[in-house]
Amino acid sequence: MSTDHHIVITQEGYSKFEKELEKLRTIDRPQVADRIRESKQFGEFSENAEYEEAKNEQAFVEGRIEELRGILQNAHVLDPKDIRKDEIGIGAKVTVHDEEMDEDWSFTLVGSVESDPGADRISDESPVGRALVGKKVGDVVSVAVPDGTIQYKVVKIRK
User: Fold this and answer.
1) Which of 47, 50, 67, 96 would bridge 39 by S-S if both were Cys, CB 3.0 to 4.6 A apart?
2) Is there a single domain that holds both residue 12 and residue 63?
3) Which pLDDT tens digit goes with each residue over 84-139?
């Protein structure tokens, strides 16, 4: 991931990344270092599965630390007063109505780095996000999905 440009992020997302970085630096990194030291006693490194696993985990932890540092250094935290209620943009809490299923779906539109569909944090770069950016209450959008097309009507936009 390239982090040489400003990344628009919500305050909630920024705080979450700060906490994750702190945990990686103060808890996960020392635990992995301990596992590496302990695994050295299991013999030859080339045949030591515990050592290899600990080294792989160390590489993951260090990579994630660097990724988070890049995100936080390049983050432009969205000021809550800049989140509009009349038009969908990053940071907006949106409720749409699925016309075919006749059900509502509420989510927060976020930048791609803090996207988490399982937690209803939808990226502005996703098909749904792209279709909804700039839309207003009452607008209807069609979103292409693998099974066809879904139509959403914008029901509510809030901060």
Assistant:
1) 50
2) yes
3) 899 999 999 999 999 889 999 999 999 999 999 999 999 999 999 999 999 999 99
